[in-house]
């Protein structure tokens, strides 16, 4: 049988609780690609429950040809 897919937000919240103390400020790099936007969204959803302050910093890594258009 197939394993159910884990809930992304629950996984992110567990990781935040394991690695960031309540009251911490978490800064996430945001390239504008789908993966970093999804990560930022998941972090934003759990920030209040995990008692963290969340900030995003744009990172232009130059690895994607379309990055200048994001």
Topology:
Blueprint: H1 8-19, E1 25-30, H2 34-50, E2 53-58
Parallel strand pairs: 1-2
Summarize the structure.
The protein has 70 residues and is α+β, with helices and mostly antiparallel strands.
Q: Strand content of the residues, in percent?
A: 15-25%
- The structure class reads alpha+beta
Major sheet summary line: 2 strands, parallel
pLDDT below 50 for ≥5 consecutive residues: which ranges? Answer: none
H/E series, N to C? HEHE
Describe the structure.
This protein has helices at 8-19, 34-50, and strands at residues 25-30, 53-58. The protein is of the alpha+beta class and 70 residues long. Strands 1-2 form a two-stranded parallel sheet. α2 (34-50) links the parallel β1 (25-30) and β2 (53-58). The longest helix has 17 residues, at 34-50. The model has no long low-confidence stretch (mean pLDDT 89).
Question: What are its keywords?
Answer:
two-stranded parallel ribbon, alpha+beta, 70 residues, 17% strand, flat, 2 strands
């Amino acid at each position: 049988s197939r394993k159910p897919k884990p809930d992304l937000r629950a996984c992110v919240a567990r990781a935040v609780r394991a690695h960031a103390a309540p009251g911490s400020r978490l800064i996430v790099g945001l390239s504008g690609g789908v993966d970093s936007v999804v990560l930022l969204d998941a972090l934003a959803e759990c920030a209040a429950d995990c008692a963290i302050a969340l900030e995003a910093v744009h990172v232009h890594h130059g690895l994607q040809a379309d990055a200048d258009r994001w």
